[in-house]
Every structure is written in C-alpha cells, then in structure tokens.
Design goal:
By secondary structure, the chain is mainly beta. 7% of the residues lie in helices and 58% in strands. It has one helix and twelve strands. Strands 1-10-2-7-8-9-3-6 form an eight-stranded antiparallel sheet, covered by helices on one side. The protein has a two-stranded antiparallel sheet with strand order 4-5. A two-stranded antiparallel ribbon has the order 11-12. A hairpin with a 5-residue loop joins strand 8 and strand 9. The model has no long low-confidence stretch (mean pLDDT 94).
Length: 157
Amino acid sequence: MSFDMEMAQGKLGRVIAVRLKPGTDVLLGLQEACERNGINNGVILSAIGSLQDPHFCNPVELPTKAGYGYGETLHLTGPIELTSASGIICHDDEGNTNLHVHMTVTDRHGNAHGGHLVEGTKVLLTVDVILAEIEGLVMGRKFDEELEVPLFAPRQA
C-alpha cells in the first residue's frame, strides 16, 4: 500500500530556550523569538506555563473544497494552565515566518481544552518554550489550490 504525502528529511540544529513574560501575546512572542534568532524552519519541542484568557479555534464544517476549516475563536476566562503546546515553524514563499501552534490547557476545575492557538492569548506568569531549528529541509507553507486552505509543504533544501 502506498500513501500520498509530501516529505523531506533534515536534522535538528540550534535549540533556543525562551521565557515569555506576563502580558506577552504568546503567538506574537513566539514569532518574535523565531525572527530574532533567524528560525523559519523549525519546531516547538515543548511549551508549558500559565495563561490569562486563552484564545484558540478548532475545525468546523465549512462550504469549501476541503469541507472544513477553523471556526470561530473560542475564549476561556480566568487563569488557565498551559499543559502542552507544540507546533511547526514554517515560512511562506516570501520568507515570512509562519507558526502553526496547537495547545492543550486545563481550567481551575481540571477540565481540558485545546486547539489551534490564535493571537490574543496572554501569558499569566510565564510560558517556557524550547524551540529547535531544523536543517537540511525547507519548512514551507503554501495555499493548496485543490483544498483551498494553506497547508504545510515540506521539501528538501
């Protein structure tokens, strides 16, 4: 059996440890950390911490060729524990850094929530992140004409 896929091979390079401070927008802070360190091919290995009023979204059915996409932004209130976040650090054809980050959080009652991180999620006390650069491949992100959504497009360097 053969599966249809895009694939490229590389290796981990530099590893960057980042602490985002209270009030920082998590997505914008991660983007700035990547840009300051020249990382646009990479991965978020680990992220933990605490958040104030996180914003995220999840897939919903939409009238597109793909049949779905991200829905309305969801919002939790109060102090929230960031139990895990991971993602890929890509770039578009113009070289602009593009992060795709998913997170899992818990509220004060231990209820778990998760989804695609969006702007507006602020650090409460700290968000501790480990980023890794990937060498030897291109972590692209392109608009897929067939599905009408932007998608990960890895290729050999």
